[in-house]
Amino acid sequence: MMDVRDIALQAACPVIAAPRFGPLPDMVNGQRIILAANGVFVQVKLDWLDCIQRLSPALPIPLPYGGIEERLTFTFGVLPIRLIEAFIEAGRRGLPNEVAGALIYSRRSRSLRLALCEPLDVSPHQIDYRMPAMDADETLAVDLHTHGHGLPFWSAKDDRDDQGIKVAGVLGCLHQPKPSALFRLVVNGRFLPLPHPWQADTTAAHYPEPDLEPGLLRRILSFYQGRRFGPWNT
Ligand SMILES: [Zn+2]
Fold first, then answer.
1. Contact status, residue 41 vs residue 34, Cβ threshold 8 Å
2. What is the Å distance from ligand 1's center to 227 Cα?
3. With respect to CATH, is domain 81-226 assigned 3.40.50.300?
4. How many whole angstroms from 182 Cα to the centroid of ligand 1?
5. Could you give the strand order of the β-sheet that contains 49-56, starting from the edge strand earlier in sequence?
């Protein structure tokens, strides 16, 4: 007889084997580990996110399981450039200080809204902020902050603050016509760089292309990058 505590723990993070012939079974919101022929993966599902990321390469024994691919799907489709531009405008109004905001996903409307965060302690070099109030059907999807006039980068404080599951974005050089930015998916302490239209030429060399399945997000963002759209076009 299994200990009830183990039953609860394993229900919170089950392990499944990747099917070899059929599709991967659906899952409810939460996290599970998938043991596949080509590695060990974690799948995370939220109202706004369905993400599979490889944790380790194939185990050193032949397994009779199927192989799976990494994937990243946002329920809202693509990162909404219009809302991020609205945040950039708020960031400019807040210069020289940093500004924080959030894109909040509503399960009911299946859409995102921008909310600015109330600063608790703010300067041109850092910001501590309170997350906006959310309705019962809402969850934080994208956590945004600015670096004011400075370059966007992930500070040690950003790494400490980026917990749980969300997209994080930092925007810098807001005094310039084209600000620069970094975006990343945060999954329980793991960070996955995301492509975006505010790719700075100066930081591009240090910003590797993510190892993602070519999804809608990537195709659309590549389109924007390929067309060299300015940050103010949607
Ligand atoms: Zn920062």
1. yes
2. 29
3. no
4. 10
5. 15-17, 30-36, 39-45, 49-56, 71-74
Measured in Å, residue 221 CA sits from the centre of ligand 1 at 23
Start-end ranges of CATH 3.40.140.10 in the chain? 81-226
Find the 3 Cα to ligand 1 centroid distance in Å.
43
**And the tokens for 218?**
């990537």
pTM of the prediction?
0.79
Per-position pLDDT tens, the chain of length 234: 899 999 999 999 999 999 999 999 999 999 999 999 999 999 999 999 999 999 999 999 999 999 999 999 999 888 888 999 999 999 999 999 999 999 999 999 999 999 999 999 999 999 999 999 999 999 999 999 999 999 999 999 889 988 899 999 999 999 999 999 999 999 988 899 998 888 755 444 443 333 333 444 444 444 333 333 322 222
Residue 221 near residue 228, CB atoms below 8 Å: no
168 alpha carbon – ligand 1 mean position (Å): 10
- Centre of ligand 1 to C-alpha 193, Å, is 15
Q: How far is the CA of 224 from the centre of ligand 1 (A)?
A: 25
The CA 97 to ligand 1 mean position distance, Å, reads: 12
Name the strand (E) or helix (H) holding 148.
none
- Burial classification of residue 102, based on how many CB atoms lie within 10 Å of its CB (0-12 exposed, 13-18 middle, 19 or more buried): buried
Gap from CA of 113 to ligand 1 centroid (Å): 22
Residue the block writes with tokens 């199927």:
66
